[in-house]
User: What shape does this take?
Amino acid sequence: MVSTIELLDVNVPFALRDWLIRRLLSGHRAALPVVIIGQFCFAVLLVCGQWIAVSGAQSALFLASILFTSGHRILIGYRIARLAHEENADWLMTELMVNSVVYGVLFGGAIILLMPSASSTEQTMLAVMASALIGTTSHSMRTLPKAGIAYMTLVTLGLVIGLVQLASWQALPTVVVLIAALSFMIRMTATSYRIFVSRVLREREAEASAETVRMLLNDYQEQGADWLFELDHDGAMVRVGERFAEAADQAAADMNGRDFGSLLAPCAEQKRIVENLREGRAFRQIVVELARSTPEDRRWWSISCRPVTDNLASVTRYRGVISDISSEKRAEARVTHMAHFDSLTELPNRVMFQTEIDRAIQSMSASTRIAVLYIDVDQFKQINDMYGHLSGDMFLKQVAKRLDRTAAEGGMGGEGRMVARLGGDEFAIMLVGDDVGEKSIRLSQMLIDTLSVPYAVDGHEVNSSISIGLALAPDHAGSAQALQCNADIALYAAKDGGRNRWEMFEPGMDIVLQERHAIERDLRSALLGNQLRLYIQPLVDVETSKQTGFEALLRWEHPGRGLMMPLDFIYIAEESGLIVPIGEWVLRTAIAEAASWQDPMTIAVNLSPVQLRSPNLLPTIINALAETGLDPSRLELEITESVLMQHCEENIAILNRLHDLGVKIALDDFGTGYASLNYLRTFPFDKIKIDRSFVSDIEKRDDCRAIIGAVISLANELGMCTLAEGVEQESQLAKLREQGCGMVQGWLFGKAMPAAHYGLVRKTDEGNQQDLRVTSDTSRQTAQRRRA
Assistant: This one.
């Protein structure tokens, strides 16, 4: 960014603006005595030369004004001297401009008054003195061009007006000359200003460069990591300097006459240096370790050297330079370590694990087997969410230690095993040996038992478990990639089998994984392919038996699999992150559907924990409500207790913002999670949905009736509505009515169907009003078909 300073086309970096203004002011201060003396002398000459024509009072007033203005100028000069401490440079520039304008007005006005009454000789003197004053100003005020030009213009204007007052054609050429001269003087002032600014900027740049060079030289002398050295024709050190000796941790006197190669640790690079010196060859940047390095303080030098010959072209000595690159080598070692080891657990990482598997596969003999165990910590995300990421990291460190210790206790030595962290809560173990098949099975069970023991993490007792997938080479795979892939497939089988277990890879397991991947792949194109469908299920008021709203339920019309239920793909959508765009589609579609109904019934939409953490959730809902004009109170968002278990404070904040919009919040599947009563205290839910597992046994079990009654009573006390899910029989409805349940939902009133099935009256269907309820006969027939 640049800023134009004071005048014309002189551009300087914005950072130099204040510095340049101060230099301009200082430059003017140097010319200040000449300016003030010139102005005062001109004023005295004007008064003395015209004493008879002007009264004494007028002369005194004029001189007093000049003295006052000159005094102000002197005061400004004094303030410029104190500029570095307390004065405002911009304000001083403004004062100087005003002061120059006052000078110009005084002298220009005096000339206008005096010129008509002066004699021809006096008129000539006035013109000469004014011209001289203008010419002096163009140089003395070159650092303040605006002020100087204003002053010269005002004085010239007074002289021109005075000459015009003479009403003589003889004065016309003089006026033209004066105007041309003023133009010339303005250009001279601007040119002088540019020359001055360019010069001071070059001086500053030169000073900065010189200062940089001085700093670099001083830094090199005091802290430089390079040393010069000199050797004789035999490679012995001569004239050893103090800094070189200090770098070698030896005395200079002890180093003189010693062989240069003795300073270096024996290695191939040291032999190259000695050979080059013996044969008189130059070499550059050979990196070698010092002989006196210790494991705690290893040191490396980069050495360059060339022979210096005399007039007879015979080698007499060598000169070179040494750079200490110990810090670079240590940094390189750290980078190498970071590239192959996990920073949290210090275990080998995925890259190193892959490299070691490749090496083991390539060197595998006929009797050797390789076992790979893929390990996943069960429900680690809940631990992270419940106790925080720092505690989660501490937990993973303990898991890593138990894995490493248990693998060592499993009978495998250090050369035949490797424990690695692949990332997140995923670990892996590789075993190499002749009998690793049996050992890997035994180790898997040991790991299951050992890692299920509770952990003490930051004052909390954390319970966890692991799932293990096991694959062997060459039994299950002949390449490193296939071996790891099969171990991963076995791990998925262990997790699908209930977790806290291990599974050995078997042919056919990959079909399940391939099926999962196929669903995920197809799900990615479901939105673009318009394959998602919105179904709705009635929500019925118990007292009036009328529909008050619908719940939006998702279906996937797969081109090859037919109509798929949410249970078949929602868990894949949540794990892959696809639930966010799918959930946004459901919200927009459900809100648009409800907005099209003639009657103001509600629409209920389920939110997953993943959706609630999406930054697009609020904008999606707000935009959809704004676009459709749907009353926010007609939208109900249903969440489960797991939403409140994860990122509780953040999720509560989002729910409060939604509640403030007028959107209703319902707690779904109440009673099936943890600490439900605490969540009722945490957030003011509008509705509580009683899980179908209690409703299905309401006629058979007293405890179910008691729980439902307690929930309804509690909700009534808290001012919350209750809705029972899964109502399929009239007898269940009767029991719920006895308990005081407010709303019901289930196949007794209609199953999830496209909106057209329920004959909803649209806003565009004028004159075709009809009851929006499904008749009880149709509902009962639907329920009977379901039971059949």
